[in-house]
Amino acid sequence: MSDDDVELEARLEEQEVFEPSEEFVSQANVSDAGIYEEFDENWPECWEQAAALLDWEEEYDRVLDDSNPPFYEWFTDGTINASTNCLDRHLDERGDEAAIEWVGEPVDEDNVTLTYSQLHEKVNEAAAALRDLGVGEDDVVTMYMPMIPELPVAMLACARIGAPHSVVFAGFSADALATRMNAADSEYLVTCDGYYRRGDPLDHLDKANEGLAGVDHDTETVVVDRLGPNGDDFGHDLAADQHDWGELMAANEGATVEPVDRDAEDMLFLMYTSGTTGQPKGVKHTTGGYLSWVTWTSQAVLDIKPEDTYFCSADIGWITGHSYIVYGPLALGTTTMMYEGTPDHPDRDRLWEIVEEYGATQLYTAPTAIRAFMKWGKQYPERHDLSSLRLLGTVGEPINPRAWKWYYSNIGDEECPVVDTWWQTETGGMMVTTLPGVKDMKPGSAGPPLPGMDIRIVDTNGDEVEPGRAGYLTVNKPWPGMLRTLYKNDERFIEEYWREYSDVDSDDPDDWVYFPEDGAKIDEDGYITVLGRVDDVINVSGHRLGTMEIESAIVGVEGVAEAAVVGGDHEVKGEAVYAYVIVEEGQEESEAFRQEIVKGVEDAIGPIARPEQVIFTPALPKTRSGKIMRRLLEDIANDEELGDTSTLRNPEVVEDIRRVVQGD
Ligand code: WT7
């Protein structure tokens, strides 16, 4: 490092509060600090400001109906269509402007620009094609697709005809696809032949077909040809209930489909996410509230303007991509980018090359990516002119101040505010973060709750804890983007999110408190530092994984007697999967068996859940009531001082396991 660098690092290291630049503030969508007070005084009517960003078919009667908590309804009796809001209403003024800029992984392949007119056309054709197949209003259409333009086209086509989509991340396994299609009774699947990963074509249809074999009802599948001749080697043949996307689109060329009027509370989509138990949760989001929420936060937090070229590097298969690649940005009529590949292919400057080439104005990414960039070194961003960037964002897990500062200075050149946004699949959109044109930033702390949010940090009794002390994050007032329930499972919805801190027999909304299962602390200024999950969910590279799901995959491997999975600290991924495994009598604790276990997890969930370490152990630490003490296993994984072992039935195993891990 040069002397200048050392000096810069030293200065940044000490600085704890960062002000947004005057240049940023002067052009920000929101720059009046009075918004916090205004929203508090005018709650819930303040959320009309969010609804007003959209075009409604039928005006709503009430902003909030809270007569039956926790089943809140927003913008009741209003009707609206999400695809109209993301497309039709922009055609007059922005028809020829880019809606989507798509960058494929192969560098020598032509990128795709879809203007608003072109996207509108494709969405109409796809909507007509889906209808031809028999898709009706409220039929759930599953999408098992990577980052290709047909994914948002299919999503918006569903929105147009009132068919909720359920997107399954392409990296998930065949089993995961089948589980989700069965849980949602989904009879339709849109998928593709394959896609590119690190330069090679990857077979995807094979995995989709394997998943379909596990679906317990009849299905119709649409297959996008992503690879062209490069996919010939896979030798795919479409079955009788499988249709070629291109042919369906051609058959519907020039078709127009009248958007269906959806009730504000009608389901826009389902998204499955991991929880404490083995079964993924089908989070239900609605049309009016969700769309208002993501549009408002896109404007207020990401500072999106129609003339921007906004780049979020997430995958649309996760909620970040739904809210902040597709729905929020398109509702605002901006240009949203999509990148198919990984940030290090063909080289570690790929993202910066894209930012420079397209003149991206915002970049929204995850701490795990930032830590990888930091590790690779600043010579990669330095090869490119990143001066088009105006704002940076992060999401998915806590960001350590060092990574925050690296991002701020090396990517944002100390000019761009960084928004550290805390939220979840269930919240639909951002909840805690600084409004970049209003608030100072404190690296490591996400910031204050957004205006109109009532967020408190409490102890196990629900009493607020003092500033600086760790507690549990709770949300004490409903918000438009909130999940409405878990698909076909109101009971579990209450159990998972409300019971902990609510009086579940009460009809008074003040007695209902939403619990996102995160630990946090708050400082004197009301800035919240999120500490991480407090349930059995771990966060690997910003991906949420249930330890029980992984355990049941491991126990499914022949020869395994018992397993416990915890998150161990990891420099880049944040957390990594550590699997403690007891083998059955006669099963060898070999390297080959370790590989079998890893494969078992990949097959059941996907490579993202692959254990970093498989540790064979003779026993697991258990309480007298037989509960596995995961905390202790975490301490061992992280080589930390062991927590209290006095409640263990078998305290001696802890030292045994530690010896195994340390290889003594
Ligand atoms: C969990 C939600 C939000 C979209 C991507 C993940 C953690 C998320 C932050 C942040 C600290 C964060 C929480 C949360 N998380 N953002 N800025 N700081 N932690 O969505 O898969 O539903 O996961 O991610 O633990 O509960 P998700």
Quick synopsis:
This protein is α/β, with parallel strands linked by helices and 664 residues long.
List the helices and strands and how they pair.
Layout: H1 3-14, H2 22-27, H3 35-41, H4 48-51, E1 62-65, E2 73-76, E3 79-80, H5 82-86, H6 91-94, E4 98-103, E5 112-115, H7 116-133, E6 141-143, H8 150-161, E7 165-167, H9 174-183, E8 188-192, E9 194-197, E10 200-203, H10 205-213, E11 220-224, E12 242-244, H11 245-251, E13 262-263, E14 267-273, E15 281-286, H12 288-300, E16 309-312, H13 319-331, E17 335-339, H14 350-358, E18 362-365, H15 367-376, H16 379-382, E19 391-395, H17 401-411, E20 418-421, E21 455-458, E22 471-475, E23 485-486, H18 490-497, E24 518-522, E25 528-533, E26 537-540, E27 543-546, H19 547-555, E28 560-570, E29 574-583, H20 591-604, E30 613-616, H21 630-637, H22 652-662
Parallel strand pairs: 4-17, 6-7, 6-8, 7-14, 8-11, 11-12, 16-17, 16-18, 18-19, 19-20, 29-30
Antiparallel strand pairs: 1-2, 3-13, 4-5, 9-10, 14-15, 15-23, 21-22, 22-24, 24-25, 26-27, 28-29
Helix pairs in contact: 7-8, 7-11, 9-10, 12-13, 15-17, 21-22
Residues 273, 319-320, 395-398, 420-425, 446, 516, 518, 530, 532-533, 539, 544 line the site of 5'-O-[(S)-butoxy(hydroxy)phosphoryl]adenosine.
